[in-house]
Design a protein that fits this description.
The complex is a heterodimer of chains A (226) and B (423).
Chain A lengths: L1 E5 L3 H12 L4 E5 L2 H10 L4 E4 L2 E2 L2 E2 H10 L5 E6 L4 H10 L3 E4 L4 H17 L5 E3 L2 E4 L4 E4 L2 E3 L3 H12 L4 E3 H9 L10 H16 L6 E4 L3 E4 L4
Parallel strand pairs in A: 1-2, 1-3, 3-6, 6-7
Antiparallel strand pairs in A: 4-5, 8-9, 9-10, 10-11, 12-14, 13-14
Helix pairs in contact in A: 2-3, 3-4, 6-8
Chain B lengths: L2 H53 L2 H9 L3 E6 L10 E10 L4 E14 L2 E10 L3 H34 L1 H11 L17 H50 L6 H31 L7 E4 H11 L1 H6 L3 E6 L4 E4 L1 H17 L6 E7 L2 E6 L28 H11 L2 E8 L2 E8 L1
Parallel strand pairs in B: 6-8
Antiparallel strand pairs in B: 1-4, 2-3, 3-4, 5-7, 8-9, 9-11, 10-11
Helix pairs in contact in B: 1-3, 5-6, 6-10, 7-9, 9-10
The chains are: A alpha/beta (226), B alpha+beta (423).
């Protein structure tokens, strides 16, 4: 997968690049408006991450350029300005998603994967990991072709774990993913613990291998390889 | 008491001694004048009588004595010292017409005419002093009455016209709020004091608005600027977590940083939300059904309610809709519901009472009545739960304020009540 990251904060560039290169993706970085314009004109990407406030220009204008080029790349806006207006303008211009800063890299990863699934396979793609099969359209899960009945939160958890497989996912990232803006209404992370416990139990009941590792104090790792 | 009433009251009270004093002066001046003119008159008459005596005009003398205003006596001996001297004195003489003693001015003199000595007494009734005092007093009373009436009229007129700019200033100050960014327009006035007052008020309010805006801008900018470094920290934690061979101690450190980072993120987002509400950036208002929003909110908190074994009941007398931004309304209700859950006891209860134009959320709780003066202030954290940031109720209050609702708290029969009322 080839990504273009348009972002002027060097440390964030490094982090995102490192995180995605772990999964053998190609990440190119543009740190101002003109170099971004140049890269957009010259190359094709699967997904472009755009920060709205850039030196010498606005990310919103870059979206227009991408759309004029009729590029098939998915566009995700990453902005420190969590403003509804920017979000609406961005999505109207043709961006596919809007992720306000600060975000977890696992969340960014899950958004990119979901976007690419939607773009490339119209969402019809089934996700298969060994004996687990997920159909995102039906929001259904099968283990050894037997359906597993999951609650909405358990389903979201499983999908999140699988898109971030072989990565450590923190409890706070899970909390933000599952509860979104309402995450601050949690009194503690116990609810996540309960959901994970139930999910694991349901998977094990269907003779699924125990992929979920608890990482002490931090979170979980859905490990499919040694 | 109004300033005008008070000043005119002072005037009236002060005018009483002034009037009394002038009454005394009047009395003195009048009696003096009367005395002088009487003396003069009596002297003239004496000269006339002496003339008559010299001319021996008995008819005229007879006429004068008969009028009862003079007495002429022939005296044989007299103290030579008295000769030619005129003695003035006051006396009371019976007034036959009124049958009472009346004050009279009298002169007594002895004049030698030829060989004879004549003692002449001439008197004349003067003013009756009690009547004079009575007259003066009633005059004073009439003046006082006039003063009173005039001061009422002046009062009325002054408050209608002169004080009008002041009154409009006061009324427009009552509606002033720095958050609306609007300076009230004061009436132009030619009165120096009021103009000065309006001027300094204008300067003060301009300063207030500027301060408010700069503070708001500061919070907004600070919150925005914090987002990027926070994103960097978050991404670094995510990367750090991926390292192999982390020891338990290191993982504990990472978990601590991650927790703090999570909290900081929520805190910053809440502050941004607050500034957005203050900036009135949530414009779209729709008709929102209160019962619908409460149901929505309860669904979100389903897990927490079950975990604390709370019973939730809704008492719907009359559902109503309010014109409000739906997102803000949900945040408002969510914060109140969250508050009711967070401060509840295990196995406690939450009761919604929805009647026309108001909704009350009441809950059982560990604490006694809360301090209403600080309850809605920012960062007034009461709960021990470590993810709470202490902004929930101030956000709720702020939303209520911009949406034309009132949010009140009271503690009745061991339950905390939060009541939302449409204005």
């Amino acid at each position: 997968m080839k990504l273009l990251l348009i972002e002027d904060e060097p440390e964030l560039q490094v982090s995102i690049r490192q995180y995605f290169e772990m999964e053998s993706n190609v990440v190119e970085v543009a740190d101002d408006f003109s170099s971004a314009e140049e890269k957009i004109a010259l190359y094709d990407y699967d997904c472009i991450l755009i920060d709205i406030t850039l030196p010498r220009g606005s990310g919103l204008d870059l979206i227009k350029t991408i759309k004029i080029k009729k590029s098939k790349a998915g566009i995700i806006i990453i902005s420190a300005k969590n403003s509804l207006d920017d979000k609406i303008t961005g999505l109207d211009l043709g961006a596919d998603d809007y992720l306000p800063k600060p975000f977890h890299l696992s969340e960014l990863n899950s958004r990119i994967k979901a976007l690419i699934r939607r773009k490339k396979f119209d969402g019809n793609l089934e996700i298969v990991i060994n004996e687990i099969r997920i159909s995102p359209v039906e929001r259904s899960v099968y283990v050894h072709n037997n359906p597993v009945v999951l609650t909405s939160k358990e389903y979201d958890l499983l999908l999140y774990f699988i898109t971030n497989k072989n990565r450590v996912v923190s409890k706070s990232a899970l909390a933000e993913h599952l509860w979104g803006d309402n995450a601050d209404q949690l009194d503690n992370f116990d609810f996540i613990y309960n959901h994970v416990k139930n999910l694991r139990k349901k998977l094990l009941e269907k003779k699924c291998e125990d992929y979920l590792q608890t990482i002490y104090g931090i979170g979980y790792n859905f490990k499919t390889k040694e | 008491m109004r300033l005008l009433t008070k000043t005119s009251l002072y005037y009236l009270v002060l005018s009483i001694p002034m009037l009394l004093l002038s009454g005394f002066v009047c009395y003195y001046v009048i009696t003096q004048e009367v005395k002088d003119s009487n003396n003069e008159l009596l002297l003239n008459r004496k000269i006339q009588i002496v003339q008559y005596l010299k001319n021996n005009d008995t008819v005229a003398l007879h006429f004068i004595v008969n009028s009862g205003e003079a007495q002429i006596k022939r005296v044989s001996k007299f103290n030579s010292q008295l000769a030619g001297k005129t003695i003035f004195s006051d006396t009371l003489i019976l007034d036959k017409a009124e049958n009472e003693m009346a004050p009279n001015r009298i002169i007594t003199t002895v004049v030698p005419i030829g060989k004879e000595n004549y003692q002449i007494k001439i008197w004349r009734s003067t003013l009756e002093f009690d009547e004079l005092i009575e007259g003066i007093l009633s005059l004073l009373a009439i003046i006082l009455l006039f003063l009173f009436i005039i001061s009422i009229l002046i009062n009325f007129w002054v408050s209608k016209t002169l004080w009008k700019p002041f009154n409009t200033t006061v009324t427009s100050l009552e509606t002033f709020s720095a958050s609306t960014n609007k300076l009230p327009s004061f009436e132009k006035t030619s009165i120096k004091e009021f103009a000065a007052l309006n001027n300094s008020l204008n300067t003060m309010m301009e300063k207030m608005i500027a301060d408010y805006n700069s503070q708001k801008r500061f919070t907004e900018n600070a919150s925005h600027e914090i987002q990027t470094p926070l994103a960097v920290i978050k991404s670094k934690i995510d990367l750090l977590m991926q390292s192999d061979n982390l020891k338990a101690y290191e993982m504990k450190l990472i978990a601590g940083i991650d927790d703090a980072c999570f909290k900081l993120t929520r805190l910053n987002q809440s502050l941004l939300l607050l500034t957005k509400i203050e900036n009135r950036q949530f414009k779209i208002a729709e008709k929102v059904s209160i019962v619908g929003i409460i149901d929505h909110s309860l669904l979100l908190f389903d897990e927490q309610i079950k975990a604390s074994k709370l019973t939730v009941s809704k008492n719907i007398e009359e559902d109503f809709s309010i014109d409000i931004n739906p997102d803000l309304c949900l945040i408002l209700i969510n914060n109140l519901v969250q508050n009711a859950i967070r401060h509840n006891i295990e196995g406690g209860s939450i009761v919604f009472f929805i009647e026309n134009h108001s909704v009350t959320i009441s809950n059982t709780g560990k604490e006694e009545s809360l301090d209403t003066t600080t309850l809605f202030e920012r960062f007034q954290k009461k709960s021990t739960c470590h993810l709470s940031i202490g902004l929930g109720l101030s956000i709720a209050k702020e939303i209520a304020e911009v949406s034309g609702l009132t949010l009140d708290y009271k503690y009745v029969s061991d339950r905390h009540h939060f009541k939302l009322t449409t204005r």
